[in-house]
C-alpha cells in the first residue's frame, strides 16, 4: 500500500505539478510560466492607445519591461512597427510616438537595437512615401509628421539626429510643393498638406537650420515662391506669411501679430464657405 501510494504521488508529479520548493522560492518551471503569463497579458496596442503626456514615463516603463523579457529583438521590432503604423494612421499621435521612441532609444539594455530598428523601418516607409501619398493623403501626412517629430525629439547626446535632416527637408519640400499640383478637385487635400507643413515647420524649422542652414534657407525660398504663385490659395499665402514672420522674429511673434493672422485666416475660411 505504501509503495502504491508512493507510485501515485510520482504519477501526479509527472503531469506537470512542480515539486514544492522552500518557502518564498519559485521553481524554474513556475518562473517560466510566470514570465510567459506576464508577456501574454501585456497588450501593446492598449498601452499605446492609453498614452498620455502626463503618464508617459509610467507607460514607457511598461513597454521597456515588455521588451526586456525574452526574445527582445522580436519585441523591439513589434514596438517599432506599432509606433510607426499607429502614427501613419493617426498623425496627431506623432509627438507622443517620437517621445516614446526617444526614451526607448536611451534604454541601456536594448536602446541601440531599438534605434537601429526604428531608423531602418522609418527609412523603409520614407522610401515608399510616393506610393503612400498616392494611396492616402492622410497616411502620407502621418508619415511626414512622424519623420519631423523624430527629428525634433531624437538625440545623440544633446544633438539632434543629423542623418534625419535630409529626410525632414525633403518631406517638408514635398508637403509645400503640393499646392496647386492636384487640381481644383483636391483643394481640401492640398490644404491638409499645407497645414501639415505649417505645423511641422513651426516645430522643426529652427532645429533644421542649426543642422543644415542651406536646406532651411531653401525651404524659406520655396515658401516665398509659393506665396507669389498664382496657383496658391489665400489660406496658403496667409499661413506661409505667418511662418516667414515667425522665422524672421526667431519664433517670438507678438500677440498683436498672432491676432492679425488668426483674424485674417478666419476671414479667409469664412469666405470659402
UniProtKB/TrEMBL annotation:
MIF4G domain: residues covered: 41-250
GO CC terms: cytosol
Main location: cytoplasm
Record GO terms (molecular function): RNA binding; translation activator activity
Subcellular location: Cytoplasm
Record's signal peptide: none
Source taxon at top rank: Eukaryota
Keyword check for Metal-binding: no
Region Disordered, annotated ranges: 1-39
Gene Ontology process terms (BP): regulation of translational initiation
Compositional bias segments (type: Basic and acidic residues): 22-39
Keyword Cytoplasm: yes
Keywords (A to Z) from UniProt: Cytoplasm, Translation regulation
PANTHER family per record: CBP80_20-DEPENDENT TRANSLATION INITIATION FACTOR (PTHR23254:SF16), EIF4G DOMAIN PROTEIN (PTHR23254)
Protein name: MIF4G domain-containing protein
Amino acid at each position: 500500500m505504501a509503495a502504491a501510494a508512493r507510485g501515485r504521488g510520482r504519477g501526479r508529479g509527472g503531469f506537470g505539478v512542480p515539486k514544492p520548493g522552500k518557502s518564498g522560492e519559485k521553481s524554474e518551471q513556475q518562473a517560466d510560466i510566470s514570465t510567459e503569463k506576464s508577456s501574454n497579458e501585456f497588450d501593446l496596442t492598449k498601452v499605446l492607445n492609453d498614452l498620455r503626456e502626463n503618464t508617459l514615463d509610467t507607460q514607457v516603463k511598461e513597454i521597456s519591461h515588455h521588451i526586456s523579457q525574452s526574445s527582445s529583438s522580436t519585441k523591439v521590432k513589434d514596438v517599432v512597427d506599432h509606433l510607426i503604423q499607429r502614427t501613419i494612421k493617426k498623425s496627431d499621435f506623432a509627438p507622443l510616438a517620437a517621445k516614446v521612441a526617444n526614451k526607448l532609444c536611451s534604454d541601456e539594455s536594448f536602446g541601440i537595437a531599438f534605434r537601429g530598428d526604428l531608423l531602418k523601418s522609418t527609412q523603409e516607409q520614407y522610401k515608399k512615401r510616393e506610393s503612400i501619398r498616392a494611396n492616402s493623403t492622410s497616411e502620407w501626412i502621418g508619415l511626414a509628421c512622424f519623420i519631423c517629430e523624430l527629428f525634433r525629439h531624437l538625440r545623440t547626446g544633446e544633438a539632434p539626429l543629423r542623418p534625419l535632416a535630409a529626410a525632414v527637408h525633403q518631406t517638408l519640400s514635398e508637403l509645400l510643393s503640393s499646392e496647386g499640383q492636384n487640381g481644383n478637385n483636391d483643394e481640401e487635400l492640398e490644404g491638409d498638406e499645407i497645414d501639415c507643413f505649417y505645423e511641422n515647420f513651426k516645430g522643426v524649422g529652427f532645429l533644421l537650420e542649426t543642422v543644415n542652414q542651406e536646406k532651411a534657407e531653401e525651404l524659406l525660398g520655396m515658401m516665398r515662391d509659393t506665396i507669389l504663385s498664382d496657383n496658391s490659395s489665400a489660406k496658403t499665402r496667409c499661413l506661409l506669411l505667418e511662418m516667414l514672420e515667425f522665422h524672421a522674429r526667431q519664433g517670438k511673434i507678438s500677440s498683436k501679430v498672432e491676432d492679425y493672422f488668426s483674424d485674417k485666416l478666419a476671414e479667409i475660411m469664412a469666405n470659402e464657405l
